[in-house]
Design a protein that fits this description.
nine-stranded mixed β-sheet; 38% helix; two-stranded antiparallel sheet; alpha/beta; 11 strands
Length: 304
Amino acid sequence: MSKINLLKTTGLIGGIAAGSWIVTKSTSNVKPRKIKPFFTQPAPYVFAHRGGMALRPEHTRLAFDHALKYEVTGFEVDVRLTKDEVLVVMHDNTVDRTSNGSGFVGEHTLEELRQLDFGYHFKDINNEHPYRGHDKAKIVTLTELLTEYPNILVNIDIKDHPESYTGSLAPSHLYRIISELKAENRVNITSFYDEQIDRFNLYAQDTISLGTGQNEVTKAFLAYYSGYGHTYQPKTDTFQIPTQAKGLPLDSEGFIQFLTSLNISVAFWVVNQIDTMDDLIQKGAHTIVTDRPDTAHFLINKQY
């Protein structure tokens, strides 16, 4: 191709792209999300990640009780379904890392899980195991968590894979528990799997706050950085994201403000350094998810 023809082709492509942008800009009918009750408290929010796993054994009453001392806004927890179809507060698909037992969560009944010591492997700053055998280092069901801590927000992450048997049941069980306990306004439901969020919302019908899966984050990120952010229609109420993913920065002030303009609350995980917490809040982050609620409490009281 000659240089002249190449220039003509390049100009044509550029003209088509510009025309496409103008058309989408003029016809765009994007609407911000309606703000759910979950997000009506004063920001910034601080969520204790798994109850504050740097300070106490994760997902145990020890952790949740301790986090309350630091006036956290909420707990960030994960849920999995047991063999007898009870939702328990648990991150891993096995109990090996966090207890003195072994095997998959979905292959244990609740009663079997209650026999395990979830403080067994936790080490404090002195490299000791102060919570082995503690009566509050036991498995917690989601129903128990929502019942025993009625005045705190809870972010619930569905961990079971959508193609697994437990994953196929988890969204409906989750919705039933929330409805029975009338906890609709104090929970946010999320998952790495967009499919699980969509399944849950088939029951909730957008009446309960929703987080965003990986695919939806990618869609919004590409729309913003390609200049087509005006075409992005949000489906969920909050993005819970790391500061970067696969080398791409998700913590730019522009991206945070873009999401905020659509009434999408931006949460970052897992943030344990005080300088990073402060920087993200200054950029407009709505929520800090942290293993160190003590550090976040110090910052919020000092700066905000």
